[in-house]
Amino acid sequence: MLGLSGTPAGGKPVQGAQVVSRVALLLRLVGRDPNGSALADIVRDSGLTRPTVYRLLGSLAAEGLLELDPKSNTWRYGPEIFVMGTVAAPRYPIEDLARPSLRRLADATEESAFLSVRRGNETVCLLREEGSFPIRSFVLHEGVRFPLGVASAGMAILAALPDSEVDQLLLDADPAFVQRWGEQNSPAAMRAGIERTRAAGYAVNPGMIVEGSWGMGAAVFDPAGRPAWALSLTGIEPRFRPERQEHLGRLLVEEAQAITRKLRQDESAPAR
């Protein structure tokens, strides 16, 4: 059982708050890939030592929060995560509201449609609806995380934030960010992307994560008017030619606005 403190490889005690933040980080990293995450990848992306990561993963597995797949030797979410998600789901009706929009988008465009949520300085993909077009992009899937502005969903959300918040986010960017995500995601490039997104009303990602894999996104606003989610479409480059982007963008914006209106209606409805 994971206690309130732990001891890293160096032997110095780790206080409770630090352990909690480390555990939360590991849970997020494991959840990036539904097929499982290798220990080496978790160690690399966590910045923690291998013994520390292994010990914390083992503690989480003992509590049922994670599982180690013996065949692939990868870590996955355990049954307790499923139970927690099931209990929490009724408090967050966005999935029920968004799924019909995703189906309409997938049917109308034949592309794969997604719902992503903002979590701090990242977006997390929550839902996917496959389109019927036989060639697909697999960059986006449930659980995958991207920094705000890197994918089309994150750019749509970033562009909808106030300038002061955008400035702070770009100012606080890790110096290694550009090294990880490329010059196409430098602060200057992101500012240009924000301007394009605000002018069009939707974001376009022209293969900036994986060459040939394009995406488009539109922000969904919570009842307070904050961009909290985004709808997006992904596919191969020939399906996102300039002459088709306006059509796809209009569909995305219409569905995003429909969800935003529904959220506001539900917020203002009298309690029963």
TrEMBL record:
One Pfam family, please name it.
IclR_C
Specify the IclR-ED domain's residue ranges. 80-265
- Give the keywords, sorted: DNA-binding, Transcription, Transcription regulation
Q: Which domain of life is it from?
A: Bacteria
* A GO biological process held by the record: negative regulation of DNA-templated transcription
Q: Which residues form the HTH iclR-type domain?
A: 17-79
Molecular function per GO = DNA binding; DNA-binding transcription factor activity
Which PANTHER family does this chain map to? Answer: HELIX-TURN-HELIX TRANSCRIPTIONAL REGULATOR, ICLR FAMILY, TRANSCRIPTIONAL REGULATORY PROTEIN
**Name used for this protein in its record:** IclR family transcriptional regulator
Species of origin reads: Cryobacterium tagatosivorans
